[in-house]
Design brief:
This protein has about 325 residues and is of the alpha/beta class. Helix content is about 35%, strand content about 15%. It contains 12 helices and 12 strands. The protein has 2 domains: about 110 residues, NAD(P)-binding Rossmann-like Domain (Rossmann fold); about 180 residues, 3-Layer(aba) Sandwich (Rossmann fold). The chain binds 2-keto-D-gluconic acid (8YV). The site of 2-keto-D-gluconic acid (8YV) has 10 residues, from helix 5. Keywords: Oxidoreductase.
């Protein structure tokens, strides 16, 4: 039986599914693996099921002598794994794309609504005892109907957000993507992120992380946005220059932001926490039991197929 290391406690149904096929060891810590643990895992296990912040960078693969043949990542984003370095050592990397789409799009909608309608700010005011009663101009936010959402990255998650915005909230959709997408709703592809930023009332970031998108969004993009516009990020924190975002929120260059991810996660700058116009969630994108079960089952299926000698359904390149 192949030996598999699961890097964090996962739902019991997922562990049981893995145990049906493999000799499974579950690491009990909820914290990321340390470099020594990752090197030992590569040396001692046939496969590893890592998660976010188990940073398999190039240095971890140095030296060789690996027993490991597959890293079956739990999650769609795999920017914490140096896929080229893994491949150079003959290690396949897989992810869990379909399983995360709807839940992540739902968190984007949560952030859009909370930011545009000032929900976090309102709740803090009420809980802080500062509510003096309803009046017609109290805490006016941005109404979404008829407004334009600009989606940067029109992959599975971007498309799920577009559907929710268009069919659920009557919003117009514009997007930026490397290629034109054949979508089942009206949407205009913009020639640049800046052009999208200038037109959108809500900008949503849904691109993959990694070196190609590092600091894709910086001061120029925020300056292109309209002062009443909101910025939402459910992708990866380092796609955004967080210092530039804080400056834009502070100075009123943009109206608000809704974030589920951070540049140096889990560290969130005190300057961001201090801002009333920032809605801050602790990376809740896929945080629902059935979603985590579906992600785990897909990771196990990738392992099962790989060790059966078949192509795993979600190999990444
Ligand atoms: C996951 C995510 O919870 O799937 C992803 O890429 O960002 C999250 O929603 C996390 O990555 C699990 O490893």
């Amino acid at each position: 039986m192949s030996r598999i290391l699961i890097s964090r406690p996962l739902p019991q149904t997922v562990i049981a599914a893995a145990e049906a096929h493999f000799d499974v060891e579950v690491r009990e810590s909820t914290l990321p693996m340390k470099p020594g643990e990752m090197r030992a895992a590569l040396a001692l296990h046939d496969g590893v099921l890592p998660t976010l912040r188990d940073d398999f960078d190039a240095g971890i693969f140095e030296g060789g002598g690996h027993r490991c043949k597959i890293l079956a990542n739990f999650g769609v984003g795999y920017n914490h794994i140096d896929v080229a370095a893994a491949r150079a050592r003959g290690i396949t990397v897989t992810n869990t794309p379909g399983a995360v789409t709807d839940a992540t799009a739902d968190i984007a909608m949560t952030l859009i609504l909370m930011s545009a309608r000032r929900a976090g700010e309102g709740e803090r005011m009420l809980r802080g005892g500062g509510w003096e009663g309803w009046h017609p101009t109290q805490m006016l936010g941005l109404h979404l109907g008829g407004k334009t959402v600009g989606i940067v990255g029109m992959g599975r998650i971007g498309q799920a957000i577009a559907k929710r915005c268009h069919y659920g909230f009557g919003m117009k959709v514009i997007y930026q993507n490397r290629s034109e997408k054949d979508l089942d709703l009206p949407a205009e592809r913009m020639e640049s992120v800046e052009a999208l930023a200038a037109r959108a009332d809500v900008v949503v970031l849904a691109v993959p992380g990694g070196p190609a998108t590092h600091h894709l969004i910086g001061a120029e993009v925020f300056e292109a946005m309209q002062p009443h516009a909101h910025f939402i990020n459910i992708s990866r924190g380092d796609v955004v220059d967080e210092t530039a975002l804080i400056a834009a929120l502070k100075s009123g260059v943009i109206a608000g932001a809704g974030l589920d991810v951070y540049e140096f996660e889990p560290k969130v700058p005190p300057a961001l926490i201090a801002l009333e116009n920032a809605v801050l969630l602790p990376h809740l994108g896929t945080a629902a039991l059935e979603v985590r079960e579906a992600m785990g089952m897909l990771a196990v299926e990738n392992l099962r197929a790989f060790f059966a000698g078949d192509a795993p359904p979600n190999a990444v390149t």
